[in-house]
Amino acid sequence: MKRTLIPTVLVALALTAACTSTSTPETATLGGGDSPATSAPAEGGSSGGSDAPAAAGSALTIDSNGATREVTIEGYGPATPAQYGLPATGELVQVTVTIRGIEGTTQLNPLYFTARAEDGTSYQAALGAIDGQLDVGTVPAGDVIRGAVAFDVTGAPVQSIRYTDELGGQLGTWNVQ
């Protein structure tokens, strides 16, 4: 029994070490238009993001993973299902996401966006449910990508949209209610 437990513990420790970030905290900046931007402290010490959610339609300037981008969430409301898309089991809603590359190259994926209800319920992106879905790819500096992210809301109504990095570290939040 001890012989099988030791390798299991070693594998678990190796996986934990591989998933632990040692990077410095990042910051997100809430700005928009010509108004001066204000910096917000990093959340939890490991990923950037504003402590207070931004209003829908506001742009957050986010620095993470060697890239700076401006992300805007707007247009929260009912979604029109794609003719050949996957059917929703609840209410299909969507937001429009605009990402403008400022510096470096930003990784892009609709799965980096999560809808969150006031009671803590999270809804993942409903891939293939709508036309015009946000693409998977990259956004180089100077480029702008725009697309929709849909959510299949099967319980409590959505209050906010969260944007994360590739490993799930929160980078920004927008209130949509």
Characteristic terms for this protein:
177 residues; Immunoglobulin-like; globular; 5-stranded mixed beta sheet; 10% helix; single chain; disordered N terminus; mainly beta
How would you characterize the overall build of this protein?
With 177 residues, the chain is mainly beta. It has a single domain (34-175), classed as Immunoglobulin-like, CATH 2.60.40. Helix content is 10%, strand content 47%. The protein is built from one helix and 13 strands; from the N terminus they run αβββββββββββββ. The chain has a six-stranded antiparallel sheet, with no helix packed on it. A five-stranded mixed sheet has the order 3-13-12-8-9, with no helix packed on it. Strand 1 (28-32) and strand 2 form a beta hairpin. The longest helix is centred in the N-terminal third of the chain and has 18 residues, at 2-19. Residues 1-50 have low confidence and may be disordered. Residues 57-165 form the MPT63-like domain. Residues 1-28 form the signal peptide. Residues 23-63 are annotated as: Disordered.
Give the helix/strand layout.
Blueprint (H helix, E strand, L loop, with lengths): L1 H18 L8 E5 L2 E6 L13 E2 L3 E6 L2 E12 L12 E13 L1 E4 L4 E5 L4 E3 L12 E4 L3 E10 L4 E7 L5 E6 L2
Summary, kept brief:
Keywords: Signal. The chain is mainly β and 177 residues long.
Shape: globular
Number of helices, counting only DSSP H or I runs of 4 residues or more: 1
Give the total of domains.
1
Strand content: over 45%
- Sequence of secondary-structure elements: HEEEEEEEEEEEEE
The portion of residues assigned to helices is: 10-25%
CATH fold name, please?
A: Immunoglobulin-like
Query: Main sheet?
Result: 6 strands, antiparallel
Contiguous low-pLDDT stretches (5 residues minimum) are: 1-50
Top CATH class: Mainly Beta
In angstroms, what is the radius of gyration?
18 Å
Protein name: MPT63-like domain-containing protein
Domain MPT63-like: 57-165
Region (Disordered): 23-63
Signal peptide: 1-28
